[in-house]
What we know:
The protein has 13 helices and 13 strands. By secondary structure, it is an alpha/beta fold. It folds into two domains: about 1-185 and about 375-390, Rossmann fold; about 195-370, CDP-glycerol glycerophosphotransferase, C-terminal domain (Rossmann fold), CATH 3.40.50. It has a seven-stranded parallel beta sheet, with helices on both faces. Helix 2 (about 45-55) crosses helix 13, helix 5 (about 195-205) packs across helix 8 and helix 6 packs parallel to helix 11 (about 340-350).
Amino acid sequence: xxxxxxxxxxxxxxxxxxxxxxxxxxxxxxxxxxxxxxxxxxxxxxxxxxxxxxxxxxxxxxxxxxxxxxxxxxxxxxxxxxxxxxxxxxxxxxxxxxxxxxxxxxxxxxxxxxxxxxxxxxxxxxxxxxxxxxxxxxxxxxxxxxxxxxxxxxxxxxxxxxxxxxxxxxxxxxxxxxxxxxxxxxxxxxxxxxxxxxxxxxxxxxxxxxxxxxxxxxxxxxxxxxxxxxxxxxxxxxxxxxxxxxxxxxxxxxxxxxxxxxxxxxxxxxxxxxxxxxxxxxxxxxxxxxxxxxxxxxxxxxxxxxxxxxxxxxxxxxxxxxxxxxxxxxxxxxxxxxxxxxxxxxxxxxxxxxxxxxxxxxxxxxxxxxxxxxxxxxxxxxxxxxxxxx
Length: 390
């Protein structure tokens, strides 16, 4: 009874405050950026913000997140960080922003702040992904209310546009502009990473000097039933085989999905060859400095392929995963060698053919109608200027 009364009073105050905010006009230069996952300043919203700062536009950029996500995070000058610790401040900015940008359904539906003259842009967090989402997931109810606030989706390909329409059942505007986070993989892009600087950041993060070693990044996705026995790759065997194949020293960087990281990270102890980078805040940066990527069904591999560097699928539960969630297309139709157990690992890596792989990458990107070219951030900022009319 006591807690019920407290909640009633709290939400009464919030609703009264929202009523007051409803009379405030939006600020044409105020933009909210939101990334709900645990990685902090990351993904498409980050690179959109970076491009706005690079162009020195007169926008007020507000990074909206949860309080527990900003620990040890670095934000550039020009970004104002607002968390749910101060709900009234958060709601004020949300109610007066002209444009709101997120990478996952916007994810703040519990705050009833939406105004008719605001524009909500969803950039999504996948890319040419193979695992089914939304209404096409097997045996899973899809909640279209997640998209009730979204006005515009940003796509990077014909394939992704079709996924938004058929899987997310999105019936409003879709702009095929490319994913800003992928500009980092193109050397001509202003967002191409400073490799030396980022390697120093990662070295500081893992408390080891990694600058003279090759990096293999292992970044598996989650399972619907939270099982983790599928993450059974022999890490030391992997490193030994890569060193045999490429005649260079390798280290392994492990990055687990937010829905499995607590369980998986308990099993990992950093060594001189293996490092946990799960909470390093820049996934695209990690991929840009990595020489090889291994995942299972994560769409990160379809970002990484833009670098044209080798990538492998290690998936010991393909049939089970297909029955539980399903694929948009067969894994075998991707450019990536598929490894299903540790016995196959050595052979698949030693037999890897760079020429055939690169040919398959080009065919795959063309088939999916991918337009990522290093200039997506500039195109999205162009759209923002048009929408805000500053």
